[in-house]
Amino acid sequence: MQKPDRKRTSVSISQNHMDSTFCYSFGIRKENDSYLFDADCILVDYDNNEYSEVNFIDKEITKEEFEKFTKLDKKYDFISLKRSEREKKMKCFALDETTTNFTVKYGDDAFSLYPNGECFEAVNELFFQLAGKYADNNK
């Protein structure tokens, strides 16, 4: 499937887990001339046995930071990882099951992507890096 002709306007990932240290939710989006970032996660510093909770919405990020996701889109071709509607509907949930979501939006068209693999890991890592950077800016 080819990418829609419209520009990518948002990327989001989230994970729910029984242990809150493994839960997170991230999203970036372009609104008018601004690039906004939402984060809700726990950053863990295993070396110092410390953690910090990060929770903010509408944090303005730079165009360059937003464009890092564009580079990942070009490298991995997000839309090629699109999950079918049937796959999304057939999933059964156990109460203690970890659930992960990966969504990209082009214009008004949103697509659910496979939440695993090299592409997902790269996007996940970039989100956590941005969360660490902007959490530090809140202190």
Question: What's the short version?
Answer:
By secondary structure, the protein is an alpha+beta fold.
Describe the protein's architecture and organization.
- The structure is a single chain.
- This protein has 139 residues and is of the alpha+beta class.
- It has a single domain (10-137), classed as Mago nashi protein (2-Layer Sandwich).
- Helix content is 29%, strand content 38%.
- The chain has helices at residues 63-76, 85-90, 117-137; strands at residues 8-16, 24-31, 34-45, 50-61, 99-106, 109-112.
- A six-stranded antiparallel sheet has the order 4-3-2-1-5-6, covered by helices on one side.
- The termini are far apart.
- The relative contact order is 0.24.
- The model has no long low-confidence stretch (mean pLDDT 85).
Second CATH tier, the architecture? 2-Layer Sandwich
Query: Strand arrangement, largest sheet?
Result: 4-3-2-1-5-6
Shape, per Cα inertia axes: globular
State the helicity in percent bands: 25-40%
Low-confidence runs of at least 5 consecutive residues: none
Number of strands: 6
Helix-strand category: alpha+beta
CATH class: Alpha Beta
Number of domains: 1
Determine the strand fraction and express it as a percent band: 35-45%
Question: What is the H-and-E element order?
Answer: EEEEHHEEH
Alpha-carbon Rg, integer: 15 Å
Main sheet summary: 6 strands, antiparallel
Mean pLDDT: 85
